[in-house]
Amino acid sequence: MVCGGFTCSKNALCSLNVVYMLVGLLLIGVAAWGKGFGLVSSIHIIGGVIAVGVFLLLIAVVGLVGAVRHHQVMLFFYMVILFIVFLFQFGVSCSCLAMNRGQQEVFLNSAWGMLESKTKTDLESQLNCCGLLNVTDQRERYEEDLRDCPAPCKTATTKCYTCGDMMLHHASEALKILGGVGLFFSFTEILGVWLAVRYRNQKDPRANPSAFL
Question: Which ranges in 37-136 belong to alpha helices (H)?
Answer without folding.
Answer: 43-69, 72-98, 101-114, 117-127
